[in-house]
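Changelog-linked ticket: pyruvic acid example.
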Amino acid sequence: MFSRPSLCGTVGKLCRCGTSATGITTVAAATVPAARHYHEVVGDIVCPSQVRGIDHIRDPRLNKGLAFTLEERQTLGIHGLQPARFKTQEEQLQLCKIAVNRYTEPLNKYLYLSDLYDRNERLFFRFLSENIEDLMPIVYTPTVGLACQRFGLIYRRPHGLFITYNDRGHIFDVMKNWPEPNVRAICVTDGERILGLGDLGACGMGIPVGKLALYTALAGIKPHQCLPILVDVGTNNIDLLEDPLYVGLRQKRVVGREYDDFIDEFMEAVVQRYGQNTLIQFEDFGNHNAFRFLDKYRNTYCTFNDDIQGTASVAVAGLYASKRITGKSFKDYTFLFAGAGEAAIGIADLTVKAMVQDGVPIEEAYNRIYMVDIDGLLTKSRKVGSLDGHKIHYAKDINPMTDLAEIVSTIKPSVLIGASAAAGIFTPEILRTMADNNERPVVFALSNPTSKAECTAEDAYKNTDARVIFSSGSPFPPVQVGDKTFYPGQGNNAYIFPGVGLGVICTGTHHIPDEMFLIAAQELANFVEPSDIERGSLYPPLSSIREVSMNIAVGVTKCAYDRGLASTYPEPQDKRKWLENQLYNFNYESSMPATWVWPRMPYIKTREESPLIAAIK
Ligand SMILES: NC(=O)C1=CN([C@@H]2O[C@H](COP(=O)(O)OP(=O)(O)OC[C@H]3O[C@@H](n4cnc5c(N)ncnc54)[C@H](OP(=O)(O)O)[C@@H]3O)[C@@H](O)[C@H]2O)C=CC1
Ligand SMILES: CC(=O)C(=O)O
Ligand SMILES: [Mg+2]
């Protein structure tokens, strides 16, 4: 149980369930109004028996499908509303598998899962968490990109909050309409840079919904503690503005002072509604805003930018793991980034930190990193203004070059990292040059979705005599070269943000230092087994990502207490166990009231009276 004052909530009446706030005290708690307990069908402690009849089945948080026992069906007044058969959650999971596999189109699988989420929350999350290799590509990249592009067509029910520019001055009031009182983690986007697909405006909502589904599925953070938000300030995507199916504000993006004031108000409203330590994950904002907001809010709010910091962490983990194959240390690497935006700069900055930690002097670390943006190599001779922000650190005193193939031939990088959203720019020629210059070239094609990757896994292996150490942002199928099959790993921030999120919200961390992302990178790299490397992957299999998330959360928790950033006290001794005790229960719980029952229909046999019913678990 997280250390927050309102642990249970039934609509509008003071709680008489006897539940008390946890004995753990937190600084955050002091900022929240005095603990008042309400019973609601929301949050952590629900009193399921208070929602009876068909409403019980219609509530996805209470619904268990055919797993309601005879006693529960009697007690809840739902007897007869379902067929006679009883099914365990395990049987239901088997059915889900059959059902989702009936669809061949990924978008139809996405819709099936979305319906399941609306119907039966625990079944959805258990299904997702136990089948992550098959289902992550559906709820996340690449299919979530398609779902965003078709958002106006497929939108059905609210999975998050839309706050539009018309709500300025009233954002707190809009936030009050979200029914959950105990949100701990928000993922927010303004839809300006959705994956590598550009400005999708309000259709970008699919991204925070998908990210937060992974918070639960991969790190066990309770779903009611997660809130996806789309701040709708318009879109500059002309196709969307002209599309009759577009569901967002039909106007150009609000910019400048008005936009900044709006985001300021949003941040303040989050704190007012949910407390100072509410985690706010910025996702898929445009480049020019992403860095500004990170700099502006990182020391005053509990916030991080996933595209900058989460991506940095997963990529640096891959670099750590690559050293085990190349046998080199960071000081022997030369890095070339195709892209100099959120992801690339984030990775470069954290790589510098990792190199410095490995004993490389900071100037030497910067010297080892070359970057290319849309205008070519970052050089000192560039016009003033074209080296804005963080780019300046990586500009080199060499002749300008614009052709990536020429740059690769000249710089001779040992590591080539793509985060450009420019599909196919790692041409066969470039990959062959990487192989000519390195015994084991390292190539990351991190852009999402699959259609935006700098190269395919197949191209990477086939143009390097299969010597490449490869990873990609979106999943690629295994590649067969000769008699060997390679299983490329997925260099995606999904390995990082759920574990960081768990550690941060459990500890009530005030703000999140970069150090936590370096710790996360090291935890992830430590989890990589020789067998993963052997099969061609720099990352552990997705099926073990829940264990990875827990290790990351433990590392983040230690850091939060060591650095005095935690506000949940007392400090737990056994941090892993303490974290585990706060996780979501993916299994159905009893729907029977603890102390009293409605009279059962007298002609129905009880478990004891009927051997048939007694056999049902
Ligand atoms: N795998 C993962 O976990 C993640 C992957 N990504 C992916 O990375 C990609 C980029 O995202 P992000 O960094 O946020 O976007 P940004 O818009 O911040 O950065 C894109 C960068 O690519 C540069 N660029 C564009 N076209 C080319 C080109 N043809 N050659 C060289 N450079 C080019 C841009 O140049 P300029 O600066 O001049 O505009 C810019 O520096 C997206 O596809 C995104 O999905 C992002 C986050 C996480
Ligand atoms: C993975 C991710 O965050 C992105 O592509 O934007
Ligand atoms: Mg992103």
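Closing comment: Example verified and attached. Residues 306-326 form the longest helix (21 residues). The pocket of pyruvic acid (ligand 2) is lined by residues 141, 195, 284, 306-307, 448, 473, 492-493 (CB under 6 Å).
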